[in-house]
Design a protein that fits this description.
DNA polymerase, domain 1, OB fold (Dihydrolipoamide Acetyltransferase, E2P), 44% helix, 5-stranded mixed beta barrel, alpha+beta
Protein backbone atom coordinates (compact mmCIF):
# COMPACT_ATOMS: atom_id res chain seq x y z
CA UNK A 1 0.00 0.00 0.00
CA UNK A 2 1.29 3.46 -0.93
CA UNK A 3 0.32 5.74 1.96
CA UNK A 4 2.24 8.91 1.10
CA UNK A 5 4.18 10.37 -1.79
CA UNK A 6 6.60 13.29 -1.60
CA UNK A 7 8.67 14.79 -4.35
CA UNK A 8 8.68 17.34 -7.19
CA UNK A 9 5.43 18.24 -8.90
CA UNK A 10 6.06 17.83 -12.63
CA UNK A 11 2.58 18.31 -14.09
CA UNK A 12 -0.86 19.60 -13.08
CA UNK A 13 -3.94 18.20 -14.83
CA UNK A 14 -7.58 19.08 -14.31
CA UNK A 15 -8.08 16.33 -11.71
CA UNK A 16 -4.60 14.88 -11.10
CA UNK A 17 -0.93 15.73 -10.70
CA UNK A 18 2.28 13.96 -11.64
CA UNK A 19 4.79 13.80 -8.79
CA UNK A 20 8.39 12.77 -9.41
CA UNK A 21 9.67 10.69 -6.49
CA UNK A 22 13.31 9.80 -6.96
CA UNK A 23 12.96 9.53 -10.71
CA UNK A 24 9.66 7.62 -10.64
CA UNK A 25 6.54 9.55 -11.63
CA UNK A 26 3.31 8.93 -9.70
CA UNK A 27 -0.03 10.08 -11.08
CA UNK A 28 -2.17 11.13 -8.10
CA UNK A 29 -5.83 12.11 -8.45
CA UNK A 30 -6.88 15.01 -6.23
CA UNK A 31 -9.96 17.11 -5.51
CA UNK A 32 -10.32 20.65 -6.89
CA UNK A 33 -9.77 21.98 -3.38
CA UNK A 34 -6.51 20.07 -2.97
CA UNK A 35 -5.32 21.01 -6.45
CA UNK A 36 -5.72 24.70 -5.62
CA UNK A 37 -3.38 24.29 -2.66
CA UNK A 38 -0.55 22.63 -4.58
CA UNK A 39 2.45 24.46 -6.04
CA UNK A 40 3.16 24.90 -9.71
CA UNK A 41 5.42 22.62 -11.76
CA UNK A 42 8.83 22.27 -10.16
CA UNK A 43 7.56 22.82 -6.63
CA UNK A 44 7.98 20.30 -3.83
CA UNK A 45 4.84 18.66 -2.51
CA UNK A 46 3.67 15.80 -0.31
CA UNK A 47 0.30 14.07 -0.15
CA UNK A 48 -1.21 11.25 1.87
CA UNK A 49 -2.55 8.69 -0.58
CA UNK A 50 -5.10 5.92 -0.95
CA UNK A 51 -4.53 3.24 -3.59
CA UNK A 52 -7.61 1.92 -5.39
CA UNK A 53 -7.01 -1.51 -6.91
CA UNK A 54 -9.24 -2.95 -9.61
CA UNK A 55 -8.77 -5.76 -12.09
CA UNK A 56 -7.84 -3.39 -14.88
CA UNK A 57 -6.74 -0.30 -12.97
CA UNK A 58 -4.50 1.06 -10.21
CA UNK A 59 -5.25 4.64 -9.13
CA UNK A 60 -3.75 6.80 -6.40
CA UNK A 61 -5.88 9.46 -4.70
CA UNK A 62 -4.13 12.20 -2.77
CA UNK A 63 -5.10 14.23 0.31
CA UNK A 64 -3.39 17.09 2.17
CA UNK A 65 -4.29 15.71 5.63
CA UNK A 66 -4.85 12.35 7.31
CA UNK A 67 -8.33 13.55 8.31
CA UNK A 68 -9.33 14.02 4.68
CA UNK A 69 -7.86 10.64 3.74
CA UNK A 70 -9.84 8.97 6.55
CA UNK A 71 -13.06 10.65 5.43
CA UNK A 72 -12.41 9.39 1.91
CA UNK A 73 -12.03 5.87 3.27
CA UNK A 74 -15.30 6.13 5.20
CA UNK A 75 -17.23 7.80 2.39
CA UNK A 76 -16.27 5.07 -0.06
CA UNK A 77 -17.44 2.46 2.45
CA UNK A 78 -21.02 3.66 1.87
CA UNK A 79 -22.81 1.72 -0.83
CA UNK A 80 -23.07 3.83 -3.96
CA UNK A 81 -20.18 6.16 -3.08
CA UNK A 82 -17.20 5.50 -5.30
CA UNK A 83 -13.91 7.37 -5.37
CA UNK A 84 -15.29 9.96 -7.80
CA UNK A 85 -18.29 10.79 -5.59
CA UNK A 86 -16.12 10.90 -2.48
CA UNK A 87 -13.70 13.34 -4.13
CA UNK A 88 -16.66 15.49 -5.23
CA UNK A 89 -17.98 15.64 -1.65
CA UNK A 90 -14.55 16.49 -0.23
CA UNK A 91 -13.96 19.06 -2.96
CA UNK A 92 -17.28 20.76 -2.21
CA UNK A 93 -17.16 20.70 1.59
CA UNK A 94 -13.58 19.98 2.66
CA UNK A 95 -12.84 17.51 5.43
CA UNK A 96 -14.08 19.78 8.20
CA UNK A 97 -17.25 20.60 6.27
CA UNK A 98 -17.96 16.90 5.82
CA UNK A 99 -17.47 16.39 9.56
CA UNK A 100 -19.96 19.13 10.40
CA UNK A 101 -22.52 18.11 7.80
CA UNK A 102 -22.59 14.51 8.94
CA UNK A 103 -22.54 15.39 12.65
CA UNK A 104 -25.52 17.71 12.10
CA UNK A 105 -27.36 15.25 9.86
CA UNK A 106 -27.21 17.86 7.09
CA UNK A 107 -27.82 15.75 3.98
CA UNK A 108 -28.48 18.93 1.99
CA UNK A 109 -24.85 19.99 2.24
CA UNK A 110 -23.67 16.57 1.10
CA UNK A 111 -26.15 16.70 -1.76
CA UNK A 112 -24.51 19.92 -3.00
CA UNK A 113 -21.61 17.84 -4.32
CA UNK A 114 -21.84 17.20 -8.08
CA UNK A 115 -23.31 13.80 -8.89
CA UNK A 116 -24.67 13.14 -5.38
CA UNK A 117 -28.44 12.74 -5.28
CA UNK A 118 -30.76 13.15 -2.27
CA UNK A 119 -31.06 9.43 -1.48
CA UNK A 120 -27.30 8.91 -1.58
CA UNK A 121 -26.67 12.01 0.54
CA UNK A 122 -29.15 10.77 3.15
CA UNK A 123 -27.51 7.34 3.17
CA UNK A 124 -24.09 8.91 3.74
CA UNK A 125 -25.36 10.90 6.71
CA UNK A 126 -27.25 7.99 8.26
CA UNK A 127 -24.44 5.45 7.91
CA UNK A 128 -21.60 7.72 9.07
CA UNK A 129 -23.19 9.92 11.74
CA UNK A 130 -21.91 7.80 14.64
CA UNK A 131 -18.35 7.98 13.27
CA UNK A 132 -18.20 11.77 12.99
CA UNK A 133 -17.25 12.51 16.65
CA UNK A 134 -14.02 10.50 16.53
CA UNK A 135 -12.98 12.03 13.21
CA UNK A 136 -13.80 15.57 14.35
CA UNK A 137 -11.48 15.05 17.33
CA UNK A 138 -8.85 13.50 15.07
CA UNK A 139 -8.89 16.56 12.84
CA UNK A 140 -7.40 18.76 15.52
CA UNK A 141 -4.41 16.51 16.16
CA UNK A 142 -3.65 14.92 12.77
CA UNK A 143 -0.38 16.16 11.26
CA UNK A 144 -0.06 17.50 7.77
CA UNK A 145 2.56 15.90 5.55
CA UNK A 146 5.92 17.63 5.61
CA UNK A 147 6.93 19.11 2.26
CA UNK A 148 9.30 17.05 0.18
CA UNK A 149 13.01 17.66 0.45
CA UNK A 150 14.50 19.50 -2.53
CA UNK A 151 16.20 17.44 -5.19
CA UNK A 152 19.96 17.88 -5.49
CA UNK A 153 20.66 21.18 -7.19
CA UNK A 154 17.31 22.73 -6.33
CA UNK A 155 17.62 26.23 -4.93
CA UNK A 156 14.49 26.23 -2.81
CA UNK A 157 11.50 24.22 -1.67
CA UNK A 158 8.01 25.46 -2.41
CA UNK A 159 5.79 24.21 0.40
CA UNK A 160 2.32 22.89 -0.25
CA UNK A 161 -0.19 25.60 0.48
CA UNK A 162 -2.40 24.31 3.27
CA UNK A 163 -6.19 24.52 2.92
CA UNK A 164 -8.03 26.71 5.43
CA UNK A 165 -7.14 25.51 8.95
CA UNK A 166 -9.55 23.60 11.11
CA UNK A 167 -11.19 25.67 13.83
CA UNK A 168 -8.65 24.69 16.63
CA UNK A 169 -8.91 22.14 19.41
CA UNK A 170 -11.93 23.82 21.03
CA UNK A 171 -14.53 21.52 19.47
CA UNK A 172 -12.62 18.36 20.42
CA UNK A 173 -12.22 19.60 24.00
CA UNK A 174 -15.90 20.55 24.18
CA UNK A 175 -16.99 17.12 22.89
CA UNK A 176 -14.73 15.43 25.42
CA UNK A 177 -16.26 17.48 28.25
CA UNK A 178 -19.81 16.71 27.14
CA UNK A 179 -19.18 12.98 26.86
CA UNK A 180 -17.60 13.07 30.33
CA UNK A 181 -20.88 14.61 31.54
CA UNK A 182 -22.71 11.56 30.20
CA UNK A 183 -23.95 12.75 26.82
CA UNK A 184 -23.77 10.26 23.96
CA UNK A 185 -20.98 11.09 21.48
CA UNK A 186 -23.36 11.55 18.49
CA UNK A 187 -25.53 13.99 20.52
CA UNK A 188 -22.47 15.84 21.80
CA UNK A 189 -20.94 16.17 18.33
CA UNK A 190 -24.18 17.44 16.79
CA UNK A 191 -24.59 20.06 19.54
CA UNK A 192 -20.97 21.22 19.25
CA UNK A 193 -21.17 21.39 15.45
CA UNK A 194 -24.39 23.43 15.65
CA UNK A 195 -22.83 25.79 18.20
CA UNK A 196 -19.76 26.23 15.98
CA UNK A 197 -21.94 27.02 12.98
CA UNK A 198 -23.78 29.66 15.00
CA UNK A 199 -20.59 31.29 16.33
CA UNK A 200 -17.21 30.05 14.97
CA UNK A 201 -15.35 32.39 17.38
CA UNK A 202 -16.44 30.52 20.53
CA UNK A 203 -13.69 29.12 22.73
CA UNK A 204 -13.95 25.80 24.56
CA UNK A 205 -15.96 27.17 27.48
CA UNK A 206 -18.30 29.03 25.17
CA UNK A 207 -18.83 25.96 23.03
CA UNK A 208 -19.66 23.87 26.08
CA UNK A 209 -22.19 26.42 27.34
CA UNK A 210 -23.81 26.77 23.91
CA UNK A 211 -23.91 23.00 23.38
CA UNK A 212 -25.45 22.44 26.80
CA UNK A 213 -28.22 24.89 25.95
CA UNK A 214 -28.88 22.95 22.75
CA UNK A 215 -28.88 19.66 24.62
CA UNK A 216 -31.17 20.87 27.38
CA UNK A 217 -34.67 19.34 27.36
CA UNK A 218 -37.13 21.56 25.48
CA UNK A 219 -40.31 22.76 27.10
Amino acid sequence: MIGRVAGRLDYRGSDHVLIDVGGVGYIVYVSDRTLMGLPGPGGACALYTDLVVREDLLQLYGFPTLLEKEWHRLLTSVQGVGAKASMAILSTLGADGVSRAIALGDAGSVRAAPGVGPKLAQRVVMELKDKAPALMAMGHAAPRPAPAAPAPGDDAVIEVAAPPPLPSSHSAEAMSALTNLGYAPPDASRAVAEAMDADPALDTAGLIRAALRLLAPKG
